[in-house]
Design a protein that fits this description.
Elements lengths: L1 H27 L2 H18 L13 H19 L18 H27 L11 H22 L8 H17 L17 H22 L3 H14 L11
Helix pairs in contact: 1-4, 2-3, 2-4, 3-4, 3-5, 3-6, 5-6, 5-7
Length: 250
């Protein structure tokens, strides 16, 4: 019973911290890169999927729509990378609110914008489609989630190496480099397929699922509090006194 009470109190404190963080975090998030990226994505999808042929004989097929939405997903991921930029992060490491929670609040605030934008982009891309085959909305949404998670993980990991902890500046080129490298993979290992009916489509998106898990795990790993790591190292030093050589077993 005591453990249940402690767990309930801990959850209550976390929820209270989240409530206190929402408004100030929403004010300090760099929204402009994400909003600009979303605007460019709308323009790009509108232009690329604009069908000037008669409705009975459209010129735009599924491959063009897949490509347009994939480019839009990359643009959104590039804009979302700036959501974790926090020049004051190192000075707030001693606060009771852990780093992972502060970053989770940022991601939670940005997520509705990404989800709404993506839903509107899908509707925009399919506005003139008469293809009887189902469109791979789920597969492309998986790609978007992976790209956004990867950009956030790269941004969080590179924040310590760029001025004022602006990891989003470094995440853009790195993400584009990874995407560019993926486009040059051999056909047997291709990730960016255009034809939803290709034999490798399902296998490629199985790989996307694995990449999503890796990206989320990496984001969680780099969001640990540095003071906790220092505490663990101190405890290890206390547990193994200096100056005593390790004994060799005979």
């Amino acid at each position: 019973m005591n453990s249940e009470v402690r767990t309930s109190e801990s959850r209550g404190r976390r929820l209270e911290q989240v409530g206190e963080l929402l408004r100030p975090t929403a004010r300090v998030i760099r929204w402009s890169p994400l909003l600009v990226a979303c605007g460019l994505a709308f323009i790009q999808v509108f232009v690329q999927t604009r069908d000037v042929c008669p409705p009975s004989n459209p010129c735009i097929g599924q491959e063009a729509r897949v490509l347009a939405l994939r480019i839009a997903a990359i643009l959104i991921a590039l804009g979302a990378a700036f959501a974790l930029d926090d020049p004051t992060e190192e000075t707030t490491g001693h606060l009771p609110t852990p780093r992972w929670l502060r970053r989770a609040v940022r991601v939670g605030l940005v997520a509705p914008v990404v989800i709404l934008t993506w839903a509107l982009l899908i509707s925009l891309a399919l506005r003139s489609s008469i293809d009887p085959d189902p469109f791979p909305t789920g597969a492309l949404t998986l790609e978007l989630a992976t790209l956004v998670s990867a950009s956030l993980a790269i941004s969080a990991a590179s924040a310590r190496f760029v001025p004022e902890a602006m990891g989003g500046v470094a995440a853009g080129p790195l993400l584009l480099g990874l995407v560019g490298g993926a486009y040059f993979l051999p056909s047997k290992a291709a990730l960016f397929l255009l034809d939803p009916h290709a034999e490798r489509w399902r296998a490629a998106h199985d790989v996307w699922r694995v990449l999503l898990l890796i990206a989320v795990a990496a984001l969680a790993f780099v969001s640990r509090d540095p003071w906790r790591n220092r505490l663990l190292r101190s405890l290890k030093r206390i547990g193994s006194p200096a100056g005593q050589p390790a004994r060799r077993e005979t």
